[in-house]
Structure prediction request, 330 residues.
Amino acid sequence: MSAPTRREEALEWALGQLGWTQWSSKTVSSDASFRSYYRIGSGADRFIIMDAPPEHEPVQPFLDIGARLRTAGLHAPRVLAADPARGFLLLEDLGSRPYHLVLDPANADELFDDALQALRVMQSRVETEGLPAYDAARLLQELALFPDWFLRCHWRIEPTDAELDDWDLLCALLIRWALDQAQVFCHRDYMPRNLMVSTPNPGIIDFQDAVLGPISYDPVCLFRDAFLSWPSERVDAWLESYRVRGLAAGLPLPESSDLWRRTCDLMGVQRHLKVIGIFARIRYRDRKPEYLDDVPRFFAYLDAAIARNPELAPLERLIAAWKGRRQLAQ
Prediction:
């Protein structure tokens, strides 16, 4: 008789918590991590099981950050039961309508208004004591994903010593812009895929990697997303509205709209380079090739930032040189 799978173990554990004898279940999603999610239901009741193998994805950060968000009045899923040693959580079901499947040009203002109001609460009221710092070492480690995984594994090129010198200077520039901002609670993946249309709106998920980080990081995540793109004029208007309303609410945002726009652009470049590297790592380490399909969107974001920020000219030259030598891996 074969050993039970983790899904079977997770379902057996959850049923023991709920005391159900009649039930149904289905896979909700698996993400870019090692976690899996299942919806379990009986009659009108529905819950989510998180299965996070503890050797890869300890659940304690999820429990800690979720409690901080709920204490601040934000809609993170309630935890009904937990077995951290096995990596199983039984969670409130926030529904099946993530922002990225619901957003359209007509409803975007309303939905993003709710998301930005939640973000203002997050950046002003959520307890940050004990959070890891989004410091220079962490920012640089993330930037290194681009040459280590995308250039070397996907484009199959080795940067020259001169190119690496230019790359180091670019990284220093991006890190300086990140650290010169106010540091606040930072979800670190505050994008439409991780926001659920719910009551109260939005439901917030995938928050376990939160840090104390740059105030522009989460607003940039929201609007320069892996799955949805918006006209730059509309993104600029949303970001400026966040600055104005955030200042009125007491958030430590720049008084200058131009400085805020440049801050968001350069913070975005750090994230875009990181995400491109992550998508390549998921492809070549984790054997999930579909994430690379969204890489052109991030190069488009980089092109837009380069076009209006002269200090990014070295990045334009580097990308052009590397693109000219690329040999795509199969």
Summary: Strands lie at 24-30, 36-42, 45-51, 79-83, 88-92, 183-186, 195-196, 203-204, 211-214. The chain has two domains: 6-92, 99-325. The first strand starts at residue 24 and ends at 30. Residues 62 and 208 are 4 Å apart (CA to CA).
